[in-house]
Amino acid sequence: MGLRLFRVAASAFSIAGFMGSVAAAQTASDGVVLSTQADIAAALANVTNGIATYPAPTDKSAIAILAHREKDGGVEVHDVLNDLLVGREGSAMLLVGGRHVDGREATPGERRSGRIEGGRRITMGPGDMVWIPAGVPHQMFMIDGGSVTYLALKFQALPKAGPAPKP
After folding, report:
1. Backbone φ, ψ for residue 17 (5° rounding)
2. Nearest-5° angle of CA 86, CA 52, CA 45?
3. Alpha-carbon dihedral of residues 136, 108, 111, 58, nearest 10 degrees?
4. How far apart are CA 7 and CA 83, in angstroms?
5. How far is CA 30 from CA 4, 26, 33, in A?
6. Residue 62 in 3-state DSSP?
7. Which of 1, 10, 36, 85 sits between 20 and 30 A of 159, alpha carbons compared?
8. What angle do CA 61, 66, 70 make, to 5 degrees?
9. Is the pLDDT of residue 28 over 50?
């Protein structure tokens, strides 16, 4: 199905160090944006309905969000966006693949709610990376009442290659 799980040594890969700090606290005239670790921590402390997010500044080709989740998420299917999830703290179980049933279009190209029939369960923890291609249903569940903090990167899916041109 194209879903991949990678394990990265947590001691060698720090999301905070990797991002330098995520989103928009200080913007320079050249468009470079610095967010301090304190800005990010303050935003992630404001949990509402089980989730707190801190969107990073990007151009229109990508979306980057640092998220802290304390409750299960709903089913999501992105028609044109690939997801790359990078675990930072805690762990979560992801139900991926299968068939999206009884969902609704929340916005153009984004289907939500309903349930997943079939699919498989994988666990994402600190340092893990999960690639979820566009069109693959997915849902995140907390493990034993815990929480998870992760970076979600969303990229426009490239068109699938068609048949080779005839000579």
Report:
1. -70, -40
2. 105
3. 60
4. 16
5. 36, 11, 9
6. strand
7. 85
8. 135
9. yes
Record the tokens describing residue 97, joined without a space.
């693949």
Spatial CA neighbour of 25 closest among 64, 50, 55? 55
Chain position carrying tokens 């995140």? 140
Sign of the C-alpha dihedral computed for residues 139, 144, 147 and 150 taken in this order: negative
> Furthest-apart CA pair in the chain: how many Å?
60
β-bridge mates for residue 82, sequence order: 155
Alpha carbons 6 and 125: distance in angstroms, whole number: 10
Q: Give whole-number Cα distances, 120 to 15, 41, 93, 123, 140, in Å.
A: 26, 32, 10, 10, 12
Q: Are 104 and 113 in contact (CB under 8 A)?
A: yes
Q: How far apart are CA 98 and CA 31, in angstroms?
A: 41
pLDDT digits (tens, 9 = 90+) for 128-166: 999 999 999 999 999 999 999 999 999 999 887 666 666
Rounded CA-CA distance 157/134 in Å is: 6
Q: Which of 68, 56, 67 is nearest to 19 (CA)?
A: 56
Say how far apart CA 82 and CA 133 lie, in whole Å.
5
- Rounded CA-CA distance 90/106 in Å is 29
